[in-house]
UniProtKB/TrEMBL annotation:
Domain Exocyst complex component Sec10 N-terminal: 67-190
InterPro entries for this protein: Sec10-like, Sec10_HB, Sec10_N
Pfam families in the record: Sec10_HB, Sec10_N
Coiled-coil features, chain-numbered ranges: 74-108
Lineage, uppermost ranks: Eukaryota, Fungi, Dikarya, Ascomycota, Pezizomycotina
Species: Lophium mytilinum
Protein name listed in UniProt: Exocyst complex component Sec10
Protein's GO biological process: exocytosis; Golgi to plasma membrane transport
Length: 851
C-alpha cells in the first residue's frame, strides 16, 4: 500500500500550534526505499503543509483556500532536494575516482602476473627440452630424460636379475638342506615368519624343489646295498641324495596346505577378508585352489542348515493341493517350501558373492562352484520332492507344479543375473551367466527328454475330456443302439449298454493306476458320486445328452492352459509338433465325440420327423443347433487365432493342421446343413399334410351365408398351416441367427409358396370361393412378411399367391388384361384360370382361346 501522510510522520514535520509550517525533513534514504512512490511523496508534502482543522462547523467548511503554506513547503522541499543533489554528485565523484584508482592497480597486477606466467612457461620449456634431449640444440641423443628412462629400465632389469639370483641361491640352499640334512628348516622359518607373502613364496619354492627332486632323485629313496636296511650304506652317486627328498617335500607341501586351509577357516570365521585372500592366493598352487574352494563351499552355514531340513516331507494345506489338481481352479503357484528355499538362495547368493569377491582373487571360479552346489544339492533335492508329491496327486498337479517351479527358479536366475553378484552393480560375467543358465536347464532336463512332456499333457487332457463327456457318451450310445421292439427287452438292453459303458470307464481308470485323489477328481468332473464306484448303472438324463457351451469353454480353457504351459516349459522347435498333437486331441473329442455325436442324433431325429402323419413334427432338437454353432465358432476361432500361429515355424505341420481343421469343420458344417435341410423337409411335409385336409367346399360355398362366414376368417387348413409355421419360425429364431436364420426362413417361405400353388391346382373355385382363397393367401403372405428373411428372399416373392387368388375373383375383361402378352407366365396362370367354376362361360373361354 502507498505510504500515507500518517506513515511519513517520522520524515515530515506537522503544523505547529501557532500555525507556522516547518519544512519537511528527508534524506537520500527516503528515495532509495523500495516503498518510495512519487505520488505518495507529493501527497505527504501537501498534507504536512495544510494545518489540521479543529472544528467541523459551517464556518470551517466555508474557509477560503490558502496557498501560502503549500508554496512555502514546496519551496523548502525544492531547496532540500537541491542540497541532496549536490551531496549525491559529490559522493558520485568520490566513487568514480576510487574506481579509476582500482582499475589502474588491477591492470598493474595483471601485467605482473602475465610476466610471471611467461617466465614459468619458459622455465617449463627449458626443463622439457633438457629431459627430452633436444637434438636441435646440438645435444647428445643420450642426454636428458631419455637417459634417465633407460637408466631406470636398466636398474629394474638388474633388480629382477638380482632377485632371481637370490631366489636361485635360496632354492639351492633349500635343496642342499633337504638332500644332505633331510629337512627344510630354512623354508620352515620363512613359512613361520614370512606372513602371507612368505607362505606363497614357500609354496612356490617347494613346487620347484619337487621338480628338482623328480629330475635329480627319480626314486626319491636312500640308496642301500643288497643286505637290506641294516647293511652298510652305499656311497651315493653324483647328484643323488641320501634322503627321500620327494617324500620330505610332499609332506612339507601337505603340511603347508593343511596349515593354510586351517588359517583360511579361522580368517573366515573372524571375517578377515584380507587374510582369507592371502591364504587363497597361496592355496592357488595346490590343485588350482580346489581344496580352498571346497572348504569354503562345504563349510558354508547355508548347506549345514539346509542339510537338516532337506529330509522334511513336503507339507502344505489340503485346500492348496486340491486347487492344484482341480482343472477349473486357478493354479496356486509354487509350493511354499520350494518358494522359501529359492527366496533364501536369492539372498544368500547375493550376500555371499560380495564375500567371495573380497576373499578370492579368482572369485568367478569360486562363485561358479558355489552356485553349482546350491542348484545341484539344495534346489534339485527339494524340487524332486515337490514334483514327487504332486505326481502322487494327479498328472495335472505334476504339470502345474513343474510350470510354477520352472517359472520361479527362472525368475531367480534372472534376478541373480541382473544383480551382478561379484560384478554388482554391473551384470554378471559371461562365465557366471552361462553357469546359471546351465544349472537351470540341468534341473528340468529329465522332465523334457524326448516326447515325455507332451505325452503327459495329452494324457492329462484325454483323462479330463473323457471324464467330462462320460455321461454325454453314455446317453447317446444308449439312444443310438436302443432296440425298438419289445418294451421289456428295450429296457434290459439299455441297462446292459449303460453298465458296459460305465464299466469300461471305471476299468480304464483302474488300469492306468491313477492316484486316488486323481480318480476322485475325474469322477467329480464326470458327475459321478463316490457310491458309483460300485458296478451298477449310471443314471443319465436328457440334459446329459445335450450340448453345453460351458463344457465346451471348459475344454478350450484346459487346452489353452496346456498350450501356454508348453510354450513356457518346452518351446523351441518342438512347439509345432506339440500344438499338432494337442489339436488332434481337441478335434477328436470336441469335434468328433462331442459335436458330431450331438449333430448325428439331431439329424436322426430330424429324419424321423419327415414320416410323422398324425402329430406335427417335434422340432425341439433345433435348440441344440445354436449351441452347436456357437461351439463350432469357438473351435474355429481358437484354432485360427491360437494354435495355427504357433505352428508357423514349420510350414509342413501348419499345412497339416490347416487341412485337418478344415476337414473337421467342413464335416460339422455339412451335418448342420443336413439337419436344417431335413427340418425344412419335415416342416414342408407337414404343411402338405395340413393342406391335404382342405375341404372341397371351402372354396365353393353353397350359399351366401356360408361365403360370408368363410370371409370372416381363414379356412381351417390355412389356420393349421400358419399356426404350425409360426411355431417353426419361433423355434428357428431361437436356434439360429444371422444369415443361417435368414436362409432357413427364406427356404421355408419358398417351400410354402410352392406347396400352396400346387395345392390350388387341385380345387375348383367359385366366385365367392375366390374371396376365401384371397383371405387364405393374404394370411400366408402376412405370415412370411413377419419373418426376418433379409436379402435371402427377394422382395414380393410371396405376392404371387395374391395374384393367383385374384384370378378367381376378377371378371373376363380384367382377366384378359392380366393375361395379355402370353408367354410362359401366362401359360402357368392359365392352369389356375382353368380351376375357376365359371371356366365354361363365354367370357372366360374367349380369354383362354386368345392365349
Amino acid at each position: 500500500m502507498p505510504a500515507t501522510a500518517a506513515d511519513n510522520a517520522s520524515i515530515y514535520s506537522t503544523t505547529t500550534r501557532s500555525g507556522s509550517v516547518r519544512g519537511p525533513v528527508f534524506s537520500l534514504d527516503t528515495f532509495t526505499s523500495k516503498d518510495y512512490i512519487v505520488k505518495d511523496f507529493i501527497e505527504a508534502l501537501s498534507d504536512s503543509a495544510i494545518p489540521a482543522r479543529r472544528g467541523s462547523g459551517p464556518g470551517n467548511q466555508q474557509a477560503a483556500f490558502d496557498p501560502k503554506p503549500l508554496i512555502r513547503t514546496f519551496e523548502h522541499a525544492l531547496s532540500r532536494l537541491g542540497s541532496l543533489s549536490e551531496e549525491l554528485e559529490s559522493h558520485e565523484n568520490e566513487l568514480s575516482g576510487a574506481v579509476r584508482r582500482a582499475e589502474a592497480q588491477h591492470n598493474q597486477n595483471v601485467d605482473s602476473l602475465g610476466r610471471k606466467l611467461e617466465q614459468a612457461i619458459d622455465n617449463f620449456q627449458r626443463l622439457d627440452s633438457s629431459l627430452n634431449g633436444s637434438i636441435s640444440d646440438g645435444a647428445d641423443q643420450d642426454a636428458g630424460g631419455n637417459v634417465a628412462v633407460r637408466i631406470g629400465e636398466r636398474l629394474e632389469e638388474l633388480d629382477r636379475q638380482r632377485q632371481r639370483a637370490q631366489d636361485a641361491k635360496f632354492l639351492i640352499q633349500c635343496w642342499m638342506e633337504v638332500s644332505e640334512k633331510g629337512n627344510l628348516s630354512t623354508l620352515e622359518d620363512v613359512r613361520r615368519l614370512g606372513g602371507g607373502d612368505g607362505k606363497v613364496r614357500c609354496a612356490h619354492i617347494a613346487r620347484q624343489l619337487l621338480k628338482i627332486s623328480t629330475r635329480l632323485d627319480p626314486e626319491g629313496t636312500p640308496h642301500l646295498n643288497g643286505n637290506g636296511a641294516k647293511g652298510p650304506k652305499k656311497r651315493p652317486g653324483a647328484g643323488q641324495s641320501r634322503y627321500p627328498t620327494r617324500e620330505i617335500i610332499e609332506k612339507f607341501l601337505e603340511s603347508l596346505e593343511k596349515d593354510l586351509l586351517k588359517q583360511f577357516d579361522e580368517f573366515y570365521r573372524r571375517q578377515n577378508f584380507d587374510g582369507m585372500r592371502e591364504c587363497a592366493v597361496a592355496l592357488r598352487d595346490f590343485s588350482d585352489g580346489a581344496s580352498v574352494m571346497a572348504l569354503f563351499v562345504n563349510q558354508h552355514q547355508f548347506f549345514i542348515d539346509r542339510s537338516q531340513l532337506i529330509t522334511e516331507e513336503v507339507a502344505g494345506d489340503n485346500e492348496t493341493w486340491d486347487r492344484l489338481q482341480d482343472p477349473d481352479a486357478e493354479p496356486p503357484g509354487v509350493e511354499p517350501s520350494l518358494q522359501s528355499l529359492v527366496d533364501e538362495v536369492r539372498i544368500v547368493v547375493q550376500e555371499e558373492s560380495a564375500i567371495i569377491k573380497r576373499a578370492f582373487p579368482y572369485y568367478d571360479e569360486v562363485l561358479v562352484r558355489f552356485l553349482q552346489r546350491v542348484f545341484q544339492q539344495s534346489i534339485q533335492q527339494r524340487l524332486e520332492m515337490v514334483l514327487d508329491k504332486a505326481n502322487q496327486l494327479s498328472s495335472l498337479a505334476f504339470l502345474r507344479s513343474l510350470q510354477a517351479a520352472r517359472s520361479y527358479i527362472a525368475a531367480l536366475v534372472d534376478d541373480l543375473k541382473s544383480h551382478g553378484l561379484t560384478e554388482h552393480p554391473e551384470p554378471v560375467s559371461s562365465q557366471v551367466a552361462a553357469t546359471l543358465d546351465q544349472q537351470l536347464d540341468d534341473l528340468f532336463v529329465p522332465y523334457f527328454v524326448g516326447s515325455s512332456y507332451i505325452e503327459r499333457e495329452k494324457k492329462n487332457l484325454e483323462e479330463l475330456y473323457s471324464s467330462l463327456l462320460l455321461k454325454f457318451t453314455i446317453y447317446h450310445s444308449r439312444k443310438r443302439k436302443m432296440p425298438t421292439t419289445y418294451f421289456g427287452s428295450l429296457g434290459q438292453r439299455g441297462r446292459e449298454l449303460i453298465s458296459s459303458a460305465r464299466d469300461a470307464y471305471m476299468d480304464r481308470l483302474d488300469s492306468t493306476e491313477l492316484p486316488p485323489s486323481q480318480k476322485a477328481m475325474l469322477m467329480r468332473i464326470a458327475g459321478l458320486k463316490d457310491t458309483d464306484s460300485e458296478k451298477k448303472d449310471i443314471e443319465v438324463t436328457d440334459e446329459d445328452g445335450k450340448l453345453s457351451l460351458p463344457n465346451a469353454k471348459r475344454m478350450l480353457k484346459w487346452l489353452a492352459e496346456g498350450v501356454g504351459r508348453g510354450l513356457e516349459l518346452s518351446g523351441g522347435n518342438e512347439t509345432p509338433k506339440d500344438v499338432q498333437a494337442l489339436l488332434t486331441l481337441l478335434l477328436s473329442h470336441m469335434g468328433e465325440l462331442y459335436l458330431e455325436t450331438a449333430l448325428d442324433a439331431a439329424a436322426d431325429h430330424a429324419a424321423a420327423q419327415e414320416s410323422m402323419t398324425k402329430t406335427p413334427p417335434d422340432l425341439t432338437y433345433l435348440s441344440s443347433l445354436r449351441t452347436a454353432i456357437s461351439i463350432l465358432h469357438l473351435l474355429q476361432t481358437s484354432t485360427q487365432t491360437v494354435l495355427l500361429p504357433l505352428a508357423t515355424p514349420n510350414l509342413t505341420i501348419r499345412r497339416e493342421i490347416e487341412k485337418a481343421t478344415t476337414n473337421s469343420l467342413a464335416t460339422l458344417e455339412a451335418k448342420i446343413s443336413t439337419i436344417i435341410n431335413r427340418t425344412l423337409d419335415a416342416a414342408l411335409a407337414w404343411v402338405t399334410r395340413c393342406l391335404a385336409q382342405q375341404k372341397k367346399t371351402d372354396f365353393r360355398p353353397k350359399d351366401d351365408d356360408d361365403a360370408l362366414t368363410s370371409l370372416s376368417t381363414e379356412t381351417p387348413a390355412c389356420k393349421t398351416v400358419t399356426t404350425f409355421l409360426s411355431r417353426v419360425a419361433t423355434q428357428a429364431t431361437a436356434s439360429l441367427d444371422g444369415r443361417n436364420l435368414a436362409l432357413f426362413l427364406a427356404e421355408l417361405a419358398k417351400g410354402l409358396r410352392s406347396a400352396v400353388l400346387e395345392h390350388l391346382r387341385k380345387f375348383s373355385v367359385s366366385l365367392a370361393g375366390g374371396l376365401v382363397v384371397s383371405k387364405d393367401m393374404n394370411g400366408y403372405v402376412d405370415l412370411v412378411r413377419g419373418w426376418p428373411t433379409g436379402e435371402e428372399l427377394e422382395p414380393g416373392a410371396m405376392d404371387v399367391l395374391v395374384e393367383v387368388a385374384n384370378l378367381f375373383v376378377i371378371g373376363p375383361e380384367a382377366l384378359r388384361e392380366r393375361l395379355r402378352g402370353g408367354g410362359h407366365e401366362a401359360m402357368e396362370l392359365r392352369q389356375y384360370v382353368m380351376r375357376r367354376e365359371d371356366v365354361g362361360s363365354v367370357g372366360v373361354q374367349a380369354v383362354l382361346t386368345a392365349l
